[in-house]
Design a protein that fits this description.
Two copies of one chain form a homodimer. The first copy, chain A, has twelve helices and ten strands. Chain A has 272 residues and is an alpha/beta fold. The two termini of chain A are 25 Å apart. Chains A, B: It catalyses: orotidine 5'-phosphate + H(+) = UMP + CO2.
Chain lengths: 272, 272
């Protein structure tokens, strides 16, 4: 998918919502657990009930890897289901990978080619030759961790040297990577005070923003400085949507929660 | 495995060698490719031919993930084969994972419990709550990226603030994490000039050292400042050993290359 196609979808649906498919077998409705592939069935029903309200889905790979081969099968079925039925949806493998050059290429091929994800999250610590192998894929996006929403994000990401914090340096340095137009960045919704500084460095790149909902971030605060003329935001909610109910009405409730967020986004977009 | 057991194995075998099982189907001998699981068969023969010369094996997970479900099956068979036949071997999942708290717990369970690896490599960028879920497992080790061997390692890891470089800060900060006695660190062999500084901060922790061989690092240089009274080093070689030949003699040649390194290590240990 191209950036233009993503923007078009956002304008069409009046939504820049991303739904996190972080499926935990302990949290899904009882009636699904007897099925052959409860994780895929859960995802399928969530997707069918919410696809018109969201522009992106983001399975966190840890939740699939945790179930070994079975988890991997559920992931494959989920991404195939998305690509076959809703090709207009932007898909994000939340994998936070990154390794030396030839090894990053392996990860990139696995997620971009074999699984046909549109994008993958990548950790920046190993620098240029760990990121560029991902950037080399046309119409695929590499979403670099910049400023994460968790408490530990402040251990290193805001360390300051020469009046510049590490996450700012990560943003600036990565702009010099080859094919940096294929970059997006993870910026937590729990850190709205940083969005203004971030937009000074990356005025046009998309930001993937987790932390709205369960983690306490505010959509209004994020949009105040994060929104660009081309929107430039994908705001993720996981638990708040997919676990809105653990009864037989889980998909319906997920749709209701998605609609609430989409309506809030529509108001913001209409006011632009 | 405990740290004491690992040290005992090193003294017994006069080796602190780790062999990287980074298996690429394009590089393995032709005669294996007709078998049902060429990757596992390759690993099995390498392991059988080298287990007496090495104390650790390190599959890089990217190489398995690249083959999807089949790759995951090869990985499971490989770790099970190691644990059943050579329980004295220290096993490292080179996964470079790391995510917010509850998600890191998922990765930790997958690698420490389901696959029964002794250790996993973890990226530090997301800080304390992304690392501590791994550290919570008793007799399991979390190998944090500190100073990596690749060129891009210098993009951020050596940034300096208050006379301290980022990798030094990572070392110091992580010592305050809960269960920090379960930490080890990745330090590239291509950066021998840093080992003295690193040992001032972590005088006793084990360092996993990639970059000897194909990447150009020197074993002598690494040992000069890296070696401790309890050895404290695991030196990894991947391509230099497992691809020493791509003929039917690949396991024999891998054993010869391992013996060369082990003999060099024996000389260093005997001189201690």
């Amino acid at each position: 998918m191209t950036k233009e196609q993503l923007i078009e979808q956002i304008r069409l649906k009046k939504s820049f919502l991303c739904i996190g498919l972080d499926v935990d077998l302990d949290k899904i409705p009882e009636h699904l657990k007897e099925l052959e592939d409860p994780i895929f069935e859960f995802n399928k029903q969530i997707i069918d009930a919410t696809h018109h309200l969201t522009v992106a889905y983001k399975p966190n790979i840890a939740f699939y890897e945790a179930y070994g081969i079975k988890g991997w099968q559920s992931l494959e079925k989920t991404i195939n289901y998305l690509n076959q039925n809703y090709p207009e949806i932007f898909t994000i493998a939340d994998a936070k990978r990154g390794d030396i050059g030839n090894t990053s290429t392996r990860y990139a091929k696995a997620y971009f080619e074999d699984l046909s994800f549109d994008s993958i999250t990548v950790a920046p610590y190993m620098g240029r030759d760990s990121v560029e192998p991902f950037l080399a894929f046309k119409d695929k996006f590499t979403i670099l961790l910049a400023l994460t929403s968790n408490a530990g994000g402040l251990d290193f990401q805001t360390l300051e040297y020469n009046d510049e914090q590490l996450y700012q340096r990560v943003l600036k340095t990565s702009l010099n990577y080859k094919n940096s137009e294929n970059l997006m960045y993870v910026v937590g919704a729990t850190r709205p005070e940083y969005f203004q500084k971030i937009r000074k460095i990356v005025p046009n790149h998309f930001l993937l923003v987790p932390g709205v909902g369960a983690q306490g971030g505010s959509l209004q605060d994020v949009c105040k400085y994060g929104l660009t003329d081309d929107i430039g935001l994908l705001v993720n909610s996981s638990r708040g949507i997919i676990y809105a109910s653990n009864g037989t009405d889980f998909a319906e409730k997920a749709s209701e929660k998605s609609l609430e967020l989409q309506q809030e986004m529509k108001t913001i977009l209409d006011a632009q």
